[in-house]
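EI: anyone free to look at a 496-residue chain?
SC: sure, send it
EI:
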Amino acid sequence: MIVRPRDFIIVSATGIVSRPNGERIGYEVVQSIDLPQCPQLPNPMVRGKLMYGAIYRQLGNGTVDVYIQMYVETQGRIMDKLVIAAMWDSTLGFWNAPQLSETKKLQWCIDNKGAKRREHASALASTKEIETGHSGMSSLSERFERSLTLGKTLPPLSDNAAKLEMYALFKQAKLGANTTSRPGMLDFVGRAKWDAWTKLGDMTQDDAKLKYIAIIDELAAKNGAAEEEEEAVTASSGSEDLLVEISEAGLLTIQFNRPKKFNAIDIAMYEGLTKALERSKTQDKVKAVLLKSSGDYFSSGNDLSMFTSNPDGLSLEAMAEKGAVLLEDVVNTFITYPKPIVAAVQGPAVGIATTILSLCDLVYVKETAIFHTPFTSLGQSPEACSSLLFPRIMGPARANAMLLLGEKMSAKDAVDTGLATAMFGAAEFETQLQSKVNLLLSRYPQSIQRSKALIRSPSIVKELQEVNHLECQTLKELWLGPECMDAILKFQTRKH
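SC: here you go
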């Protein structure tokens, strides 16, 4: 279709027939009409050149199958439009006839449309009064072949039952009913395919093609929705300070990116982190999460300027309440996240950057990494369930040294005590990390998620959430106390 700036107006007609089973059969006809008196529009448009029509079925669950659609360039001639409108009128009348099956109706639509188009094209060619349009509607076989091509571009199916159904429909569409002999007992895959094909019985080849096309269209629509959701995750969650990306392999990477501030975490980064994780919980494409950082620091923990910046003019009590709710939400997201979270710690991790690691599933550290929880020197207390998990992971003695005295822990000690999974040298860290991530992504995702659900059972989740709430309430009280205020003033003095 040639697009150029022209005057235009759009006329649309739609109709819907609802069925008792929840399905809706509908149509839509849209055309452009040549009206030279219309004002000039800024965008390139087509005047009087295009006519579009479609018949679709909306199922009770909301999904839509487009059964027949047509695009015709009418060249602005009224006779073209009259013929097309008459054809759609007869098509829709036939479609609503209750006594015929949908398959027969569809085939009639296709055949009738082709006959009308050929008849009209012949008449136009013989009179040479107007140019013929171009129809976007093709034969069922051509649509089937296009669906085969489209299917190759979609992500592979993970459900074996769905794979068998697609195989069976393909064989039925190409060869008809199964007349072959059943494979031997030891050919499990062959027997499963044979059974799926045989189960279709005497389904016609056209019916098999139609069903195959419908499934591919639905998969393509879901894939498009998934891509839109992926864009939504990265666009709404990511920022200059928090980079969010989803790889083709299904890895959601969340990267702290404030190296000049030692990757200190501010409110916007907390909110972005929570959004990225929450939105990816139900996103099928995301198989795992990688939490990493830019620069030399993994993170220096909370950005203490959050305690002195008050752009909304809130009271100290309101600021403390807001901070406690934000922290509790972030930690709860880690507690309930159903997919594996991998942390890559390449440098010092302070405060919550250390405590949150106990809620990650795999923690890989560079040999130069240092772990520090200086809560009591800042007038604060443990968070991210560390008051519960650190004693369980490393024993009460070592946990008390970190949480009460603020003693630092080396990368080697983090591995030895169970806080980290493995340590790698500086030269091999990125290579080893990528190897471990690739290994994780190669595992069956449902198996991984179900296994994690067993490890972090509902009772454990409930316990962690209760501890998280208690920790955040304790922090809120301490933030309003004199000790934390004194620590913040000292921080501000050092800063200036």
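EI: Residues 338 and 453 are 7 Å apart (CA to CA).
SC: 👍
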